[in-house]
Design a protein that fits this description.
Layout: E1 2-4, E2 19-26, H1 36-49, H2 52-55, E3 59-66, H3 86-95, H4 102-111, H5 114-132, E4 137-145, H6 147-162, E5 170-174, H7 184-205, H8 207-217, H9 223-235, H10 252-264, H11 271-281, H12 284-305, H13 325-328, H14 337-340, H15 346-361, H16 386-389, E6 416-422, H17 430-442, E7 447-452, H18 475-484, H19 486-489, H20 516-525, H21 540-546
Parallel strand pairs: 2-3, 2-4, 4-5, 5-6, 6-7
Antiparallel strand pairs: 1-3
Length: about 550
């Protein structure tokens, strides 16, 4: 666990500080420390942009980065070697260094269930509250993204089930996982396909995008019909080789990897629709542009989709040798891993064979599953690397699948749950976010749900506004900072200003690369071969006149 300070903590005796805001960040991505500082600094930047440090000088915000690789061992804790109570354990966990070897990492991951991590989060938060409350009024907020949202849900449930309430002011869930969703893995696979259709429909609904797509493809068919035809050309090996196989694009699976990564990356988001249109047409100009672009795009996709069981220490020196996200995602898979995965092939068949079938029959297949690449592909006989067998754990039936929240956890009616999700998110689809929203509401907890159009997973890293641009902070930060300072601003969840999240205010899918960052990125990806990425040979004014 790391801290990011605005100033000394706790404030010295006799200081003028009257209100301390403890702001905890619980990362996603398997707990990697990489990028966590960016989240902390971005919130500090937002506080400064709002001039809150000058407006409210008696308010003292403290950022905590909860690095949970190395946590999760409270039942029992293999790092709390001497502690006999939660206060001493919290102190010892704060002093814990990163693992020194792969074997040490395996021991940690074996204990690193989301329930255990949530228990350690409770210890840490209570420790920080106890440190600050004697000197000043203290508010505590917890921001979780992706997997961190599930850890926060466990954190709330553990306290409720154990009846040991630790009062806080609010939680913020961004890219929302539901621990109640026992089919999370299968729903995620399905939502990849849903996301692909939804993305194409957004182009269809945009008059200029739809017009450009029609001009390039030379058809009056709707975009999804063209995309299905495009898929069939790949599956029947009847694409024009000059725009596909000769350039290294040799399968539909590879294209869907390109397409889905294009949708995921905010600064190249129009590229998937553009590639479908250009490859489908395959004119002489398309061949020239694609001959430069596709090798670059394929190399980028292959590089980013390569799987590593171990995060290389030289890449993330602050993390040590630790296993990647594949392992701890088992908390979100609706199977009893200890019983099924180690003892029979049914889980393997569902996980790998079924996903292979999806790859063959859906418009936007899931692509290769990292875990499946480590196995022997056979319906009746399979082998698992010992590295996986050693780290899988049984879920605690006391907490698994239970989402219980005592509303008394939240200190006042002004607090509660702030939920944020993108509608193009397939890691945590809108259905999961809406389920969590209903669960909070059913427990009589004040809840605000902000759905952002045209965004994918974790709004905090991509909800840039047209007014601020990519150099400013995100809309998510603009909303959260009001939540943190609600006492000073006299706000509650219901009247926090969320207008920045409206579709017209966000940089969504920049179909015509009007933003200079998007334009420059596309220029590089297209191998500096063109600035007319659609290939419509028209200015924007001419295109608008044809509508």
């Amino acid at each position: 666990m790391k801290r990011l300070f605005l100033s000394d903590f706790p404030p010295p005796n006799g200081s003028t500080t009257k209100h301390i805001i403890n702001y905890w960040l619980v990362n996603g991505g398997g707990g990697s420390q990489f990028g966590m500082e960016t989240f902390g600094v971005s919130m500090l930047k937002q506080i400064i942009l709002n001039n809150y440090h000058n407006k409210y000088p008696q308010t003292h915000p403290v950022m905590y980065l909860f690095q949970y690789r190395g946590a999760g061992m409270s039942i029992p804790s293999i790092h709390c070697y001497t502690a006999t109570n939660w206060i001493d354990c919290a102190k010892e966990l704060i002093r814990t260094t990163v693992p020194s070897s792969t074997n040490e990492s395996l021991k940690i991951i074996n204990a690193m269930t989301n329930q255990n991590i949530a228990q350690d989060l409770q210890y840490q938060i209570q420790y920080s509250i106890n440190q600050s409350q004697p000197t000043s009024q203290t508010s505590t907020y917890i921001y979780g993204l992706s997997q961190g949202t599930g850890i926060i849900e466990y954190y709330l449930s553990i306290q409720t089930i154990n009846s040991q309430l630790q009062q806080i002011n609010g939680v913020i869930l961004d890219g929302i996982m539901s621990i109640r969703d026992s089919d999370a893995f299968q729903n995620q696979m399905k939502s990849i396909n849903d996301r692909f259709y939804l993305y194409l429909s957004k182009c269809q609904d945009d008059i200029l995008c739809s017009k450009a797509f029609s001009l390039v493809t030379g058809t009056d068919q709707d975009i999804i019909s063209v995309a299905l035809t495009f898929q069939m050309l790949f599956l029947t090996n009847t694409t024009n080789a000059l725009c596909t196989t000769n350039l290294g694009l040799n399968s539909w699976d590879l294209f869907t990897l390109i397409g889905n990564q294009g949708i995921e990356n905010i600064i190249v988001r129009p590229i998937t629709a553009i590639l479908i249109a250009r490859i489908y047409r395959c004119s002489a100009e398309d061949q020239r542009v694609l001959s430069r672009a596709l090798p670059i795009i394929i190399a980028l996709v292959e590089q980013s989709s390569s799987t590593h069981l171990i995060d290389p220490p030289e890449d993330y020196p602050n993390d040590g040798s630790v296993l990647s996200i594949t392992t701890i995602w088992s908390d979100f898979v609706g199977f009893t891993l200890d019983q099924n995965f180690k003892t029979n092939s049914s889980f393997y068949n569902d996980f790998c064979i079924s996903s292979k079938v999806l790859n063959e029959f859906y418009l936007a297949p899931t692509g290769p599953m990292p875990l499946c690449g480590e196995t022997q592909l056979s319906i009746y006989n399979y082998t698992m690397p010992s590295v996986f067998k050693d780290i899988l754990y049984a879920k605690s039936p006391r907490y698994w699948g239970k989402f219980q929240v005592n509303p008394n956890i939240f200190r006042s009616q002004e607090g509660g749950a702030l939920l944020l999700n993108g509608d193009l998110d397939y890691n945590s689809p809108m259905s999961s976010a809406q389920q969590v929203q209903k669960l909070f509401v059913s427990e009589q907890i004040q809840t605000k749900f902000v759905a952002m159009k045209g965004l994918t997973h974790v709004t905090g890293i991509q909800s840039y506004t047209k007014e601020g641009g990519f150099q400013s902070t995100t809309c998510t930060n603009q909303i959260i900072v009001q939540f943190l300072y609600q006492q000073e601003l006299n706000l509650n969840l219901s009247n926090i200003d969320c207008t920045c999240s409206l579709k017209e205010n966000l940089i969504g899918i920049d179909w015509f690369y009007s933003n200079p960052t998007v334009n420059q990125t596309l220029y590089s990806v297209f191998g500096n071969s063109t600035t007319d990425y659609w290939g419509v040979n028209m200015t924007m004014t001419q295109l608008e006149e044809t509508v």
